[in-house]
From TrEMBL:
One of its GO terms (biological process) is tetrahydromethanopterin biosynthetic process. Pfam families: GCHY-1. This is GTP cyclohydrolase MptA. Converts GTP to 7,8-dihydro-D-neopterin 2',3'-cyclic phosphate, the first intermediate in the biosynthesis of coenzyme methanopterin. The record marks C152 as: May be catalytically important. It comes from Aciduliprofundum boonei (strain DSM 19572 / T469). It catalyses: GTP + H2O = 7,8-dihydroneopterin 2',3'-cyclic phosphate + formate + diphosphate + H(+). Its EC number is 3.5.4.39.
């Protein structure tokens, strides 16, 4: 019989809020409609630890992942958020001492897109599933990360003023003028209540319609010009991106319960600075309706 070191009394009796495993990479099978996809998924699993226990039984987390992986081969989950929910319930059962469990999943996700001139490309997105469980039950969220482009409205108007001082042409009031651009990473997380489904593809579309312009892996000259022009015709701060996403979420999901949690982030890699610009709103659907 091997000693149970994890079960010993710790020298310093303090509760641990989260303990577990991070960056476990496994292939997971997910079915949406009549389509089954394989997601190479990075998995984080945490539970809390009481002050009476020296260590967490981390191998139990790996056992759960192995069991879920086997099950997903024959019975794929219907979404990454449902997979997270399934894992978190099993984790809670395995750790009988835990009062809280959390599972975070992240995977690359690919969609076919068309450039402004209609050229087909395959674009990469981040797909996120999250589930938390305590005495009140399970809460799950689905989310996406999307890379887009923003053009700075402040610099644009400053440049316009400078150009009007140099060139007396009324056309300068009607056309977009040069400004600096950013690669923007926007993230949306939306709580999924029982009995509801939220499509990741819809969240991706919301973000791509909220930035100055989507970005593409393949752009020939005319397409490249169209993307740049589109962004300059639609200049936005990171704050504008967050607000536009919130507005579109409210329009798309007004039928969801008011207590649904919403997290929206926008971060731009500045081209003329060494720092990034960032904006975030954490709210509920009910608060957005006010």
């Amino acid at each position: 019989m091997y000693p149970d070191v994890q079960g010993l009394q710790p020298e310093k009796r303090y509760k641990i809020t989260r303990v577990g495993v991070k960056n476990v990479v496994k292939p997971i099978f997910v079915k949406r409609g009549d389509k089954t996809v394989t997601l190479v998924t990075t998995i984080d699993i945490f539970v809390d630890l009481p002050p009476s226990k020296k260590g967490s039984d981390m191998s139990r987390n790996m056992e759960v992942i192995s069991e879920i992986l086997e099950e997903s081969i024959t019975t794929p989950c219907t979404g990454i958020e449902n997979l997270a929910s399934k894992i978190v319930k099993k984790v809670m059962r395995k750790h009988e001492y835990a009062t809280y469990a959390e599972v975070n999943l992240k995977a690359d996700y690919f969609l076919e897109r068309k450039t402004p001139l209609g050229r087909k490309t395959i674009e990469r997105y981040g797909l996120i599933g999250r589930a938390k469980m305590d005495e009140s039950g399970v809460k799950k969220m689905v989310g996406v990360e999307v890379v887009g482009m923003t053009a700075c409205p402040c610099a644009m108007e400053t440049v316009r003023t400078i150009l009007k001082e140099k060139y007396k042409d009324s056309l300068l009031n009607e056309i977009p003028v040069p400004t600096h651009n950013q690669r923007n990473m926007a993230t949306v997380m939306l709580e999924v209540p029982e009995g509801y489904e939220i499509e990741a593809n819809d969240l991706i579309e919301i973000i791509e319609n909220s930035v100055s312009s989507p970005t593409y892996e393949i752009l020939k000259r005319r397409d490249e010009g169209e993307v740049v022009l589109r962004a300059h015709e639609n200049p936005k701060f990171v704050e504008d991106v967050v607000r536009e996403i919130l507005h579109r979420i409210l329009q798309k999901y007004k039928q969801l319960p008011d207590d649904v949690l919403i997290i929206v982030r926008s971060e731009s890699e500045e081209s003329i600075h060494k720092h990034n610009a960032f904006a975030e709103r954490i709210t509920t659907l009910g608060e957005l309706k006010k």
